[in-house]
Amino acid sequence: MTQQRLRWGVLGCADIAIRKVIPGMQKSQKNSVIALASRSQEKAAATAARLGIARAYGSYEELLADPDVDAVYIPLPNHLHKEWTIRAAQAGKHVLCEKPIALSAATAREMVEACANRGVLLAEAFMYRHHPRYERIVQIVRSGEIGAIRGIHATFTFNNAADLGNVRYRRDWGGGSLYDVGCYPISAARLILGDEPVAATAVGFTSSQHDDVDMMVSGLVEFPKRIGLTFDCAMWAAPRNTLEILGSDGRIEVVNAFVGEDMSFQVITSHGERVEAFPSFDPYTLQADDFAEAVLTGAPLRFQPVDAIANMRVIDACLQSMASCQRIEIAK
C-alpha cells in the first residue's frame, strides 16, 4: 500500500475501545479511525461524535462493506471474536482482535487460517508487549546479567465483582478471570523465555453469583529446563499487576507489568540496584503503529498470529486442569 495512514473501523462501543484503543490510534501518525459500528445507530452516532469519528454505522455488516476501511479492531465479547474476525477477513479487512483472541486454541487456528486464506493480517491485542520496556527486559534476560532463569511470578488482579451485569460474568460469552487477565502472565512468560510450556496446573475459585465463571485462578505453567511460571489472576481480589523474573544472580521486578502509568522496572543483582525508566509512550498507540507498519509497508507483524494459537493452548490446559484437578501436558 502507498497510502500514509491505515484507515480503521471499530466493531462495537466497548469500554476498552472508547477509553484506550481508539484514543491511542488517534494519537498516531500512521493510523486514522474513520468508522465505528454498533447494533444501535443512535449509540454508534453518539459515540462517534464524542470521539470525532466521521462515520457511524448501525450494524457491523455496514462497516465491513465500507470500501474505505482497511482494517477493523474487534473489542466485542470473547464469544464473538471468531465470527467477526472471519467475517472481516471475508470482507478483505485486516484484523486486530482483542485478547483473548478466541475461546480455544482450535478456534484461534480457524481464525488464523481464515485470515491467511484471504490474505489479510491478524493480530491479538496484547498492547503491553509493544512498549520498548519489554524489549529491554528480554535483552537483559538474554544477556545473562541476572544469571540463569530460575522462575517467573506474575499477577493480574482486580475487584469488579459488584458489577453483576458485566460481560466478564457470562460463562457462555467467554467470561472468567483466566480469559480476561490470566492470559497476560502467560503471554509475558512465553515472550520472556522465548519458549513454549510443556504442562500446566491450575486451581480456580468460581462464584454462583457470577454464572460460575472463574473469579480467581492460581496456576503453575511448566517450561522446558524445569522453569516455572507461577501466576494468579482475579476479578474479585485486591488490584495488582506485577512481574518478577528470578535469576541465579539477580532479579527483575516490574510493579505495573501490564497496565499503569509507571513504565519503569527495577534490576537487582549482587553488583547493585538500578531503575530503568522509559518515556510515557502510549502502548495502544505503539500497538497500532506496529500493525500499520506491517500493512502499509509489507513488513512482518511484530507478533505473528500463530503466537495467539500458542497462548490459547496454555489457557486450554489451565481450564482443563481446573476442571479435572490434574496436571495437563501441553502438546506442541
From TrEMBL:
Coiled coil: none annotated. One of its GO terms (molecular function) is oxidoreductase activity. This is Predicted dehydrogenase. Keywords: Oxidoreductase. Belongs to the Gfo/Idh/MocA family. Pfam families: GFO_IDH_MocA (PF01408), GFO_IDH_MocA_C3 (PF22725). Residues 135-253 form the GFO/IDH/MocA-like oxidoreductase domain. It comes from Alicyclobacillus hesperidum. The keyword Oxidoreductase applies. PANTHER family: OXIDOREDUCTASES, TRANS-1,2-DIHYDROBENZENE-1,2-DIOL DEHYDROGENASE. Residues 6-124 form the Gfo/Idh/MocA-like oxidoreductase N-terminal domain.
